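dude i think i finally got it to work??
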Amino acid sequence: MDGLFDMEGAEPARADSGGTLAGNTHASAPLAVRMRPRTLDELVGQQHLLAPGSPLRRLIEGDQPMSLLLWGPPGTGKTTIAAIVSRQTNRQFVEVSAVAAGVKEVRAAIDAARNRLARGGPETVLFVDEVHRFTKAQQDALLPGVENRWVTLVAATTENPFFSVISPLLSRSLLLTLEPLTDDDVRGVVATALKDERGLDGQVEVDEQALDHLVRLAGGDARRALTYLEAAAGAALAKGSELVDLATTETAVDRAAVRYDRQGDQHYDVISAFIKSVRGSDADASLHYLARMIEAGEDPRFIARRLVILASEDIGLADPTALTTAVAAAQAVQLIGMPEARLNLAQATIALALAPKSNAVIMAIDAASSDVRAGKIGAVPGHLRDAHYAGSKKIGHGKGYRYAHDEPYGIAEQQYAPDVVADAQYYRPTSLGAEAGLKERWERIRARVRGLKPEG
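look at this
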């Protein structure tokens, strides 16, 4: 049955088997498959899901029927968790591909699970990878099996389930969020694979530079790290060497190592050059530094945050949409993740590089802050003070206040700032981009508010 992998008619999965994954432990299976954790204790990362008494431990160790929705980036253990649930609870493991399966296949899998239960057979773990690819009708087809507990559904998605999974299915499942693996987590995965008899069994060693390169390329994805390790080890052994060095790794994975220490000089130098290139309106140079950071595994959230800051510091009201663009890119990074989010970062980088520039916003707030720090903090004018509480009017609060909406053009001539800074001019708009129009408008408004003649 296309898209459906079942073990109907075979020996039920026991604690030492892995359902359909059990047949993938042979020597020619990919390293990432051979090294798939068999128990929760072997699972790397996700410590927030593995604590004693956590829902995942209760499901597996207490053998409690419960459907799971696993949300997280690729290579963080979603398929592994499904296999562990099956293996450690003696359930049958059935996998349905959201890419190839339709409603017919989904219903067939659930009917087979119900029939097994009716015959006194084992319960079934139904694993649906990339459940966000299912249509509403396909997701609806899962509901009877989940509601009646004919199956323990384990559905995995890399996209926000609140947008991609129907509400009835979401409300009937326990949502577990998986985090990207840390660099130390990935190093641990590689180290284990090098020594474990299921892995490379000590055939090769990896030098420190090559290991750093593998970790950077993995980007928190354990499966990717093991795939690259297998390629590099194969290349070294083919040359008759038992050492995987940087040159061998670069050749094997066809990716040059980017010299970039996320805690050192390169981190600060490259991000500095990136910001200055965007500020300087050189889109090509900006994209170069962006690519260097992405290829080196820089945290995309860090890049996005710097773009959000730049949008106000270096563009401001010369292009009021710059901040919206930068914030949207930052949200996209959180929602989508890498590698796709590089497109959102690139779009924002180009847009901000090409935008008209103004530093009037930062100059304005810095000037205002400087006066405040210097002690220029006068009393709030009486007519602006709160006049809502009992007795406030008796002490003059609100007396003489002019309601702006009652005045021509919605602008009232009156003093707003304290006496000590009554004549201060903090915001000095430039004549660049959209701020040119704001400059003219602000000059007219300021003159009317302060009872002055417009300049010029």
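The chain has four domains: 4-177, 183-253, 265-354, 369-450.
im so relieved honestly
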